[in-house]
Amino acid sequence: MGYAPSALALVPFISVENMMRVVHATGIERFLAELADYIEQDFRRWQLFDKTPRVASHSREGVIELMPTSDGEAYGFKYVNGHPKNTKEGRQTVTAFGVMAEVDTGYPVLITEMTILTALRTAAMSALAARYLAPEGSRTMAVIGNGAQSEFQALAFRSLVGIDRLRLYDIDRSASERCRRNLAGRGFDIVVCGSPEEAVEGADIVTTVTADKQYATILTDNMVGPGIHINAVGGDCPGKTELHRDILLRSSIFVEYPPQTRIEGEIQQLAADHPVTELWQVFTGQGPGRTGRDQITLFDSVGFAVEDFSALRYMRALIGKLPYYDQLDLLADPDDPRDLFGMLMRAEPQPA
Description:
- InterPro entries: NAD(P)-bd_dom_sf, ODC_Mu_crystall, ODC_N.
- Pfam families: OCD_Mu_crystall.
- The chain is α/β, with parallel strands linked by helices.
- Helices cover 32% and strands 24% of the residues.
- It has eleven helices and 17 strands.
- Helix 5 links the parallel strand 8 and strand 9.
């Protein structure tokens, strides 16, 4: 078979194994902090990006989504699903992969797993928002919902905000115990709580990160005192929320991209014109963040394509320094660009 891939045929690919190597070689808290810096850089140039709500295919079991964007020079997209039932079958609730390409040629320049990377990106975004919105000097965070995202959230908030006390609650206590074991020795004072009410006692920040695809009330109005910051991560598709509506009415609400968040976020419970502040405005100083000690701030997190673009950009930079990737023979590259058929025929196996 007369074929050998050229340099133009090869695209860097980061497997799950190599993603884990990259994270460990970098250090997980450093990785989260640097990823947050990339996200902030891109939010500060928000106007350059193509922006559209993600393309979603909903079913009774879950959702499959495509999340595309471009800054005019590079194009990126992520394929991601959300299927809460999967854990009962030994599968992940969320899986993902992503692609980055050059706009001027259309050629892909990176393919990567994004199941692990999405967990890191989500946590980095949460902590970045909290750096602007949480009470000054915050040290204690309640984490309600101790599934696959919980440890990532804790480490991101430690790295970016300085959180060192965790109050954990999950309806499955074994999930909280697993989270505590996984974070042992990382400098946290950890309490496993018996109820959401107990978890929020004394917390400066409350992170809700549950998975069930339903309207839920993880936090009720009486559980939220003045001055708290809420990091609402779990509500991320139509029909899926975590907070009582009255909490929203008392809060200053911050979002990534309003046209998407009004469909998928906690604010789907509110009128379409309810005021919100976009995070890019806060990061650039064009909008207010936390303005008072007693203000309740709420980051209504749903995840937006620009954050995944930032993650892809960061990974591309990292593999320029680290050898943890493979080269995929992905793109046909005939000697004559007009002779794709000839390339195919020349690769025909010859009789022995």
